[in-house]
Amino acid sequence: MENLGSFLWAVLGRTGVQLVLLLGPALGIGLAMHVLAVFTGRHAVRVLGIRVWHYGFAMLGTLVHELGHAVPCPLFGHRITRFRPFTTDPAAPVQGSVEHAYNPRNPWAQAGNFFIGVGPLLSGPAAIYLLARMLLPASSFEALPQIDPSRGQGLWGILLGLGSQALAVVLGTLSSLFRTDHLGRWTFWLFLFLSFSISTGVHLSTADLRGAWKGLLVLVVALLLLNLVLGLFLDPTAQVLGLLGPGLGVLLGVMVFALTLLGLAALWFRGLSALRDLVRRPG
After folding, report:
1. What is the largest CA-CA distance in the chain?
2. Dist CA 68 CA 118 (whole Å)
3. Which contacts (CB < 8 Å, 24+ apart) does range 262-268 have?
């Protein structure tokens, strides 16, 4: 009985570590992007006006965001009942939406709720990655370091490794992209404009998280069962990370790049907003 308890405790621990490594960094970066996107949008509206901000930047971000919800729907047996990719009303409380129906007794469809809910965390970086391939010299974007989620020893060692790698991506972005020879390329400026616009939509709303939570429970149960079966013979953590690690590394690298863009934009619009207030201050 003691051995069984130790085994089950080990299975729970492995499952927790796998979830933290596979989902934690992306969700953490997504949360940081959400905070920066809201902050940037608030100050950009003060500087540019709500219409310029909406039509010039936010509408594209909303379109890519909603596509991130819509594209996984048919893959998991969900039927899209209403799709509004964006609105032309800058003051609308809901800028876009995807409504879908599914069979709640289907485990595959239930698991799909997670990927549909977090879809914008995938669609935004995917769009930025494709834009980089089309608009930038190959050497520019390929020079950015990728993030390896399996680097390091132990959970805390891996998390510290993720932090240092994220910093390397930020520094790599600044040194590889913002070079003097790029300033004369119109494709470079187009890439920055489109990437920033898309980045404003790489976030998750409360409704997105509620939908993702249903599917996450199914995925946790599936991962527990996998660890229960394979745990009799080996610790499958390395195999799981080895299978998903390369794609996750590219995803996290592009997300940190988008986070860097949002951070620079936040500083820029916050400075212009403060300057605007200073100029308008009476006396």
Report:
1. 80
2. 8
3. 262/33, 262/36, 262/37, 262/40, 262/196, 262/199, 262/200, 263/36, 265/40, 265/44, 265/196, 266/36, 266/39, 266/40, 266/43
In contact, 76 and 102? CB cutoff 8 Å: yes
In the chain, domain spans: 2-280
Distance of CA 254 to the CA centre of its chain: 9
- Render pLDDT for 158-215 as a digit per residue (tens, 0 to 9): 667 666 766 666 666 666 666 777 777 888 889 889 988 998 888 777 778 887 888 8
Please return the burial class of 94, using the count of CB atoms within 10 Å of its CB with bins 0-12, 13-18 and 19+: exposed
| Global pTM value | 0.79
- In this structure, what token pair is assigned to residue 131? 């834009």
| pLDDT tens string 64-90 | 999 999 999 999 999 999 999 888 888
